[in-house]
Amino acid sequence: MKVIAYDHYGPPNVLRLKEVPKPSPKIGELLLRVRAVEVTKADCELRSFRFPVHWFWLPLRLTMGITKPRRQVLGSYFAAEIEALGEGASKFEVGDRIFGTAHLRLGAYGEYLCLPETYPLVTMPSNLSFEEAAAVPLGGLNALHFMRLAEIEQGESVLINGAGGSIGIFALQIAKDLGGHVTAVDRSIKEGMLRQIGADHFIDYSKSDFTKSDQKYDVIFNMVARVNYSAAIKCLKPGGRWLSGNPQFFHLIKPFLTNLFSDKRAITKFAGEKEEELIALKDMIEAKRIKPVVDNVYPMEEAVLAHQRVENEDRLGAVVLTMGRAK
């Protein structure tokens, strides 16, 4: 089978097609025929081993490989068909179309992948293609996790900093579905797309700093690593909630003081990416309450271009690779 592999850290052109043996499912595993996979910022960061947040660099390097990657095939969020069942696997049937995550096991940048059936894997929404379904798990699972923690009530004001990313796009839609009045912060190139999926207001961060405005919000969801935490907290109304999906190390410490000495809440609980959440997303998508936004679809032979597209920050939605279709 073909995979997109890399054997050393570096720029997008370290990615290459490679032939490897087709895997066989072990006890309790599923053999998946991967059809589409989202190319994420995390994929690009693991490939280059350059991260905007530095505090987890050492433990991650020890886990993923000190001098070269231990797992040479990236890809965590995908859509696939079940080709075979390992002994004891009974959750799905051969031929089922599913979507979900491989977590840090990775491997979805290949035509086939074996995963335990206990992983967050759910049959795909009936109204999505493989490419659209692959664009859901990363953004959807993380956004749903944080929007539930935010406890948004009807009519509350919500600011999403980094609204044009994979997670921000779903957070915006879920916040709107919960009754929030949403301000999206991102680059000007993304304004049209963000308004189309429900943004009530838009701030171009290159022209205006929301932390220097007099506007106050009930909820701020931050997906930008380098943000002035103290200034942002001042933008919350009394009783307001701050949530960070991409925290710097001090963003893990300062919330304790915020919660202890103010009437505001700062929440930094990491997403667990649970099956129940994936089912909830599927239901919301089939009810047409939220939807994935796909920027571009590339064949696996163009993985380098896909990584470049993600890194240049001009994408309007998810970038997706199809596995094994191009000749």
Automatic annotation (TrEMBL):
Record keywords: NADP
Coiled-coil region list: none
SUPFAM superfamilies: GroES-like, NAD(P)-binding Rossmann-fold domains
Molecular function via GO: oxidoreductase activity
Every Enoyl reductase (ER) domain range: 10-321
UniProt-listed Gene3D superfamilies: Medium-chain alcohol dehydrogenases, catalytic domain, NAD(P)-binding Rossmann-like Domain
Protein name: Alcohol dehydrogenase
